[in-house]
Design brief:
The protein has 159 residues and is α+β, with helices and mostly antiparallel strands. It has one domain. 40% of the residues lie in helices and 26% in strands. The termini are far apart.
């Protein structure tokens, strides 16, 4: 049998493709694969962000002994991109901000699965603000020290 292009190879290839298409096993396998892909996406987009947010807040608060809050978490499970919005670490008393980060972007690599360790392609912290405590240095407390901490030479006494 010759197809309309006159090439018997195309006809044979079309026949094999039709047989594969009619294969019940292949259709069932493809359907399972598509369903798994959709479930992975739904869990990643809808279920994972609240769980990640709760885990970050509780574990970071326990590790830092400071209250930690997070406004929103966005995850793209297909690109492994995580976005944390308004990460706030309060001072130990909880009144003042110790560290504020408006947005954190974490872009992980799929090679993390092969290496069994986190591999990051990108980590971006946008508009980071931190409060630093002013602690006087020992040089600043010396008599005769200038603002840069250098001890000024006392003039020699003349007799």
């Amino acid at each position: 049998m010759v197809d309309r292009f006159g090439n018997p190879r195309w006809t044979a290839a079309r026949g094999r493709a039709a047989a594969v298409y009619r294969s019940r096993r292949l259709r069932k396998s493809l359907l399972i694969l598509v369903i798994a892909f959709v479930i992975y996406g739904l869990l990643g987009f809808l279920a994972a962000p609240p769980i990640i947010r709760q885990q970050i807040e509780t574990r970071a608060s326990a590790a830092l002994s400071r209250p930690v809050t997070l406004a929103a978490v966005h995850l793209n499970p297909y690109t492994l991109r995580l976005q944390l919005d308004q990460l706030h670490v309060a001072d130990r008393d909880g009144k003042l901000a110790f560290v504020d980060i408006d947005q954190t972007l974490i872009d992980a690599s799929w090679s993390s699965l092969l290496r069994m360790a986190p591999v990051l392609d990108e980590l971006v912290l946008q508009r980071r603000r931190e409060r630093r405590a002013e602690v006087p240095r020992v040089q600043d407390r010396c008599v005769g020290a200038d603002r840069n901490g250098r001890v000024a030479q006392l003039p020699e006494e003349r007799a």
